[in-house]
Amino acid sequence: MAISDLDDIVSYIAAQGGPEAAERIYTRIMERIGTLSVHPARCRLVPELKDIGVDAYRELIVAPHRVFFRISGNVVGIVGVLDGRRDLAELLIRRTLFP
Predict the structure, then answer these.
(1) Could you report the per-residue pLDDT of 68-85, keeping only the tens digit for each?
(2) CATH number at residue 72
């Protein structure tokens, strides 16, 4: 799902701002995701999920996008990359409770 999310973001930005803009945001998001290999727990719990008692998911902000992930032992699993300007509460609940 996260790969599809990122593809959608890059395609949208390419259509609106051109391929160079799309490449810049793709690179920025991927570089920030790469930082999760060190101390991923530094990122906050996803507030929309924490409010309903789900504390297994964290987020990395790459403004205006939000990268959602889970930590399982030494593995960080990216579960979504979404535009943070959207109302994400319902979508996040559906994705996490009914994957």
Answers:
(1) 999 999 999 999 999 888
(2) 3.30.2310.20
